[in-house]
Amino acid sequence: MSYLDQLPLGALVIAALTLGLAPFFPEPHLWEKLKMLAAGQLSRPIDIFDLVLHAAPWLLLAAKLLRMATTAAG
Predict the structure, then answer these.
(1) Which residues neighbour 29 within 8 Å (Cβ) at sequence distance 6 or greater?
(2) What is the domain extent for residue 47?
(3) CA neighbours within 13 Å on the CB side: how many for 68?
(4) Which residue, among 35, 31, 24, 39, has the nearest Cα to 55 in the 3D structure?
(5) How many domains does the chain have?
(6) pLDDT for 2-58, tens place per residue?
(7) Is residue 30 within 8 Å of 55, Cβ to Cβ?
(8) Separation in Å, CA 62 to CA 45, 56, 58
(9) Between 62 and 23, where is the model more confident?
(10) How high is the pLDDT of residue 29?
């Protein structure tokens, strides 16, 4: 958990908005991969890796915000 505490919040927000959503047009890549996952079309290893790559900044940001909320409350 100390590693998560050391990550700067601003850097995580920037990473989530850039790497997490790039390329932006015609639709964010993460959104496209999530739609493929919901439709059961996410089967190629490169697509699964791509989903993990684009979702990682969002997951780290969510974990950081959750950690900040729990440490501030307790």
Answers:
(1) 21, 22, 23, 50, 54
(2) 2-73
(3) 11
(4) 31
(5) 1
(6) 888 999 999 999 999 998 888 888 888 889 999 999 999 999 999 999 999 999 999
(7) yes
(8) 25, 10, 6
(9) 62
(10) 85
Burial (CB < 10 A; 0-12, 13-18, 19+), residue 17, is middle
Nearest CA-CA partner of 39 in 54, 51, 25, 21: 51
Of 45, 71, 60, 72, the residue nearest 8 (C-alpha) = 60
User: Strand, helix or coil at 57?
Assistant: helix
Q: How far apart are CA 20 and CA 38, in angstroms?
A: 18
Output the CA–CA distances (angstroms, integers) from residue 1 to 25, 32, 47, 67, in the order listed: 35, 31, 29, 8
